[in-house]
Amino acid sequence: MTSAESILRSLFISVFPLAAVWLLMYGIFQIFEHGFSLVLLGMLMVSTIIVVLFAGLFIRPRARTDAKLKLHSIGIAFGMLICLVALFLEKTHPAEIMPALILGIGWIFYLSWYSLFADRTNEVLKVGNQLKELQLENAKKEQISTASFLGNPSIYIFFRGNWCPLCMAQIKEIAGHYTTLEKLGVHTVLISPQPHKQTEKLSLKFRLNFHFLVDRKNKAAKQLGIFAENGIPAGFQVLGYDSDTVMPTVVITDEKGKIIFADLTDNYRIRPEPDVFLKIIRQTIRQPHLPNS
What we know:
Helices cover 48% and strands 12% of the residues. It is α+β, with helices and mostly antiparallel strands. The strands form two sheets. Strands 2-1-5-4-3-8-9 form a seven-stranded mixed β-sheet. It has a two-stranded antiparallel ribbon with strand order 6-7. Strand 1 (135-138) and strand 2 form a beta hairpin. Helix 1 (3-34) runs antiparallel to helix 4 (94-114) and helix 2 packs parallel to helix 4. The longest helix is centred in the first third of the chain and has 32 residues, at 3-34.
């Protein structure tokens, strides 16, 4: 991905939801001012579905969604169809339906362009390889090497930051299996390039014996080929985040540091189930009868 494209993606994911909010508010205002119409119905349907999706990700974080968001897409397509019908039944001027149609086109870009990562073929994180030794920092800025985790299986979860609702949902899921991971002797290592203070907030929130680490300037992400230039939504820099981040990635190693599992999702809205991690680890250390949580 080129720098120009990464900047466009960063701008798109900030502007697109805000445009949906604006159109929703505009549609409601028009109904109060001028009364109900088909074009306003279509406009409200398209904008409401998009607003509800993004609001839902933050209000009730989920680690995964349907890849194509089929029900959402059907509703948006129906809303756009209503707008087109209004052209003929209500003699609506084409300019009046343009905001809804543009938003509908934006939805197509969201599904087929923004949500997807380019080819994530990665020879560095290939199963069977030895995980490179990485130099990270804890919330107190103390140096931590991944070599210190040798001797036990380890789960490395690379996440974009506290601002990412899907990342937070993924961490909450894995935290729900804390007891099992402890019994299995697994090091759970959560790694993000976010500021140290954000990582400290995360560790205080969960208060578990996990390793909450910072990848300063994405050095480890670049070593592993999972660096995401301009990967955060435009505007989040005001919260202290850097423009660059990491692509969501999960790596599991055995006690010798050999990679036994790697998930390099090609869709930022889809993260693996924690049961997948537990199954891989049990198979590796041959303890299949421990409880699921």
